[in-house]
Amino acid sequence: MGDNSNDLCETLALQLAEVEMLASMYANDGELAMDDPTAVPDIQSFIDGNSEYSQLHSRIRFTLKLHVGDASKNELEVTCNLSHEYPRTVPDIFLRCTQLSRIEHQRLCEKLALYIAELDRDEICLGSIMQWLQEHTEDHIKVSQTEVAHHKPTNTQQPRTENIFCRMWIYSHHIYNKVKRKDILEYAHDLQLTGFCVPGKPGMVVIEGLNQNVEDFWQRIRRMTWKRIVMKEKQDQEIADGKTVDDYRKFEGFEEKWFEPRQVKGRRGAHMDRGMLFQYLDEHGFGYIFPIYFEVSGKQADDPVSD
Q: Collapsing DSSP states into helix, strand and coil, what is residue 67?
């Protein structure tokens, strides 16, 4: 890889140094949890020249629990997902906080995105991001608490998003990348979503679960680099009294499904066998989705780029 290999070693070395710094800053039990404990030694092995880049499938991904404000109960979970090119690329940051309303969560995420965009590239920034979150999250929690205190339900009240079951159908030009496929599986597991992912060309992702978790999943994967990714269909249903989200699921767990002829299964460039896909959908009561899914119309993610 020549100079590119040296550049990559530099960025990865910065990542390891930053993770070590954060681990020393947030050293209490349960504060910082690595998603894949083998990522650090795998990356270190590559930096030391003991493995090839083609063997490096691990990436740094961790969750940090921040206590914000004076109240120790105000806990913000910050999930950081780093590409191998970080800090030359921006980190993927995902926030979860039970004390934030949906609107205030969105506002905090938007402000954070603007803050990150203003930071200098080529410099590590996770420490600065954590400090910014500790300084700004409490204000949004207070607004959320005020909203609850003054909330007056009416007959015209819209269903709360946590009481909405959602199923989303996502189309991609193709899904081959092993890291993307691993992330899709992990995101679905983290967010307690069921459904399936179809690698190959075209690619397909179907997810179902609580509305907020489904939306979180969509926001996460649309930020990856794609040639084209489109939300084809979104189905919402209010969860009835006495029911749970599990009563509305049509799939058990989340897994990869292959719909390719046996002789070409897994071969890059091979096209999906749409007949096999239709049969699978029809067995689950979704045969009607097939023509919707393969039409041009759909909600496309912003600014898709080549994979």
A: strand
Neighbours of 127 (CB within 10 A): 12
CATH topology of domain 161-300: Alpha-Beta Plaits (3.30.70)
Sign of the torsion angle spanned by Cα atoms 80, 83, 84, 88: negative
For CATH 3.30.70.100, list the domain ranges present in the chain: 161-300
Location of structure tokens 């493995």: 51
307 in Cβ contact with 224 (< 8 Å): no
pLDDT digits (tens, 9 = 90+) for 151-203: 544 443 444 456 889 999 998 888 988 888 999 999 999 899 999 999 988 88
CATH class of 3-149: alpha beta
Q: Per residue in 27-86, pLDDT tens?
A: 998 899 988 888 899 999 999 999 888 778 778 989 899 988 765 678 899 988 888 889
Please tell me whether residue 52 adopts helix, strand or coil conformation.
coil
